[in-house]
Design brief:
Elements (H helix, E strand, L loop, with lengths): L1 H8 L4 E7 L7 H10 L5 E9 L1 H16 L1 H18 L3 H4 L2 H7 L4 H7 L2 H4 L6 H9 L2 H6 L5 E7 L5 E4 L6 H7 L9 E3 L2 E5 L9 H6 L4 E6 L12 H33 L7 H8 L1 E6 L1 H4 L12 H22 L11 H6 L19
Parallel strand pairs: 1-2, 1-7, 2-3, 7-8
Antiparallel strand pairs: 3-4, 3-6, 5-6
Helix pairs in contact: 2-4, 2-16, 3-4, 4-9, 13-14
Length: about 375
């Protein structure tokens, strides 16, 4: 795929893989990051690894590149997120008066947690399918040259990650990557059932580092690593459990990357497998949304309103612009985030005070 990247972007000199974390409506931050990166005439995109909202951003970006290049990719991302904002409250609620009545006093996520989706949504209706099919030509995406895709979903039977490559991307693969089992039916592909990729790979960093011909990877992280205070209400406990659960796959990948690096340094004169040697040399970079998303109510991930999406898009653009200014010249030369220190080092103990909930964002 490396040659395909160069053909798409002419003589662009900086090549960068993308690793896009999931996070529901907070994925609008990633949209902002991508929007700014696509403006950089010197930058070519390598492989793209994405999960859940990261998968939606990945296929929208790749579809736009296939149809017309960076400007079309920016337009496609914009149209997808505008459609998300227009959908607002899920169609499932609008079309079900009983659920809509409950939702006036509690959030959709809380409603969903009370029942199985096989009970309140027996036909398996998923409004994301209609949105994706309206904006992405999956047949063209599979058959057109461009950045390789790694879209993660979780095999329900085994709990292991399944990575869908560009040649096998379908609307079902993206729906599987974004399938929260409390809201949607499991997605069946080739006789196997899949749930959200965030349970197993959020997003995949190891395969990306081992196989991509591009030696730099930018991680776009939506969820804060830490949350001060001890959750005490059911809402707070559920939110923290989800944050921990969906954060573990990335931490596992980073622990593996650091272990490979330690072995590579320790046995520098010994012959290593090509894949692990390449992983050890991969240069990682990071843009984080944590300081923008940590103050948002947990349920904001499931309730995308235009004000929230606009705010996060602007934040993503701003952070990407700052990162390019500080580190654009480091691409191809040096890593700009210390993975071990940033993700794995012990953290100061959080104050043992109740978490009273997160305020909604102001305009």
């Amino acid at each position: 795929m490396g040659a395909n990247v160069l053909r798409l972007f002419g003589q662009r000199t900086k090549q960068l893989n993308l690793a896009l974390e999931g996070g529901g409506a907070h994925g609008a931050f990633t949209w902002g990051v991508l929007d700014r990166l696509l403006e950089d005439d010197a930058l070519a995109l390598g492989w793209i690894s994405g999960t859940s909202a990261g998968a939606v951003n990945a296929v929208a970006l790749a579809a736009g590149l296939a149809d017309g290049g960076p400007n079309e990719a920016r337009a496609r991302l914009k149209s997808v997120w505008e459609a998300v904002a227009k959908a607002g409250v899920p169609d499932l609620l609008r079309n079900n008066p009983w659920l809509a009545g409950i939702s006036r006093s509690v959030t959709f996520a809380q409603v969903a947690s009370m029942f199985s989706p096989y009970d309140f949504n027996p036909l398996g209706f998923d409004p994301l399918r209609k949105l994706l099919e309206a904006h992405v030509d999956f047949t063209k995406l599979r058959t057109t040259a461009g950045p390789e895709l790694l879209i993660a979903a979780t095999d329900v039977a085994t709990g292991r990650a399944r990575l869908f490559r560009r040649s096998e991307i379908s609307v079902e693969a993206v729906l599987a990557s974004a399938c929260l089992p409390t809201i949607h039916h499991a997605v069946s592909i080739e006789g196997r059932a899949y749930w959200d990729g965030g349970f197993s790979s959020n997003p995949d960093l190891v395969t990306l580092g081992r196989e991509s011909p591009v030696a730099d990877t930018l991680i776009v992280k939506l969820n804060s690593l830490d949350k001060n205070g001890i959750p005490t209400s059911a809402r707070e406990i559920t939110a923290r459990v989800n944050q921990i659960t969906f954060g573990q796959p990335m931490l596992r990948d980073i622990e593996l990357i650091e272990a490979v690096r330690r072995l590579s340094r320790r046995f520098a004169r010994m012959r290593h497998g090509k894949a692990d040697a390449q992983l050890a040399r991969q240069r990682f970079h990071l843009i984080e949304a944590g300081r923008f998303t940590v103050a948002l109510a947990p349920e904001s991930k499931a309730l995308p309103d235009l004000q929230l999406l606009t705010y996060l898009h602007a934040a993503g653009r701003s952070e990407a612009a700052k990162w390019l200014e500080r580190h654009g010249n480091d691409i191809g030369r040096r890593e700009t985030v210390d993975l071990a220190r940033h993700f794995l080092a012990p953290r100061p103990a959080a104050a043992e005070t109740p978490d009273t909930g997160s305020p909604t964002i102001a305009a």
